[in-house]
Amino acid sequence: MTRSDVALGMPSFPRAADEFAGADPQRGLMDTFGRKATDLRISLIDKCNLRCTYCMPADGLPWLSKDQLLSAEEIRRLVRIGVDRLGVRELRLTGGEPLVRADLAEIVRSIREDHPDLPIAMTTNAIGLDRRVDELVDAGLSRINVSLDSVHRETFAKLTRRDSLDQVLRGISAAAEAGLTPLKINAVLMRAVNDHEAPQLLAWALENGFELRFIEHMPLDGDQQWNREETVTAAETRALLSQQFVLSPHQQERDGAPAERFDVYARRDDQVPDEHLGTVGIIASVTEPFCADCRRTRITAEGRVMSCLFSREEFDLSAALRQPGSTDELVAQHWAEAMWVKPAAHGTDRPGFDLDSFHRPDRSMSAIGG
Ligand code: SAM
Ligand code: SF4
């Protein structure tokens, strides 16, 4: 019997049932390489009000219907199963754009009720956040990362295909005022669009007390235009920032974090880097991947487990959640099985390192949940 004969999983290709034999929810979300996922990312919705060129096509994508999306109650249950049975220790809500979901505060509140100490973070474009931030903090949201690639109106509009910079900046200010700190800013550099603005963006983040993280452009754009040569690499980003600042590797242990952090000092004419201005992170997912330390497990907006951003194999937990007589035990078992077969590194379908060839998944970043 192959795995595809076992009604609930939904792998893209058949696997023999004995490939899952080692999966044991008692050991948490462990994979065959001994990595254990403790960091859960749930996409709340695939829709978004921006159309970032590195993420979504200009015309959007065929959206999921309301019935296909996980309900607030299903999300609550999944988090409970993850935390109580499978060793999940942190949660990030993402999308698409999580703020597009009207019941976002209800979702946060219900999770907080179940897990008073769980860090609950959200990745957002911050549009409309100024109107909802108090409600979200009151519901129990711990932290946010805001995506912002430029503080120039024209560049922002070119990258996001929307003239919404003012709304994003309003959202960021409101979040800082509401105490959602340390507030992180995520930026993707695109060659000849905003790469030359990198030092300016860092200066803006430092002045405002935000921690900026540059993420290398990954082959997850809806337009499928990505190519490796055009990717602004981590090394190039460091060189760009060094035009204006002195970067020095941050001493603190990385501890599985995707970003390599640097202390930032002012670059003075006498070359003496004395004034510490803050830190900056660089996430080199393409050129310096950190798969060996990965602790992520992802659930898409329609309830499929993706063990890696680049998985082409998905496991449908919504079927396990929705079938009559569904038990938490059964859902945990399927989740553990999906994670057990996590590939060694991204770009690979099966265990075995293959870092030079990126096989892109069918989904774009917005449809996975970044
Ligand atoms: N809409 C929210 C936002 O933009 O923050 C949350 C979802 S978005 C998909 C999550 C993160 O993925 C954002 O920080 C975005 O910059 C990043 N992202 C999207 N497409 C990417 C790509 N092709 N390569 C690298 N990062 C990407
Ligand atoms: Fe929307 Fe975030 Fe993708 Fe931009 S990166 S299109 S804000 S989901």
Describe this structure in words.
The chain is an alpha/beta fold. 27% of the residues lie in helices and 17% in strands. The chain is built from 10 helices and 14 strands. The protein has helices spanning 72-86, 104-114, 129-139, 153-160, 165-177, 198-208, 234-242, 317-322, 328-340, 365-368, and strands spanning 29-30, 36-37, 39-43, 90-94, 120-124, 143-147, 184-188, 211-215, 245-249, 260-266, 276-283, 296-299, 304-306, 315-316. The strands form 2 sheets. Strands 9-10-11-8-7-6-5-4-3-12-13-14 form a 12-stranded mixed beta sheet. Helix 3 (129-139) links the parallel strand 5 and strand 6 (143-147). 45% of the residues are buried.
Task: Summarize the topology.
Layout: E1 29-30, E2 36-37, E3 39-43, H1 72-86, E4 90-94, H2 104-114, E5 120-124, H3 129-139, E6 143-147, H4 153-160, H5 165-177, E7 184-188, H6 198-208, E8 211-215, H7 234-242, E9 245-249, E10 260-266, E11 276-283, E12 296-299, E13 304-306, E14 315-316, H8 317-322, H9 328-340, H10 365-368
Parallel strand pairs: 3-4, 3-12, 4-5, 5-6, 6-7, 7-8, 8-11
Antiparallel strand pairs: 1-2, 9-10, 10-11, 12-13, 13-14
Helix pairs in contact: 1-2, 1-9, 2-3, 3-5
The structure holds S-adenosylmethionine (SAM) and iron/sulfur cluster (SF4).
S-adenosylmethionine binds near residues 218, 220 and 366.
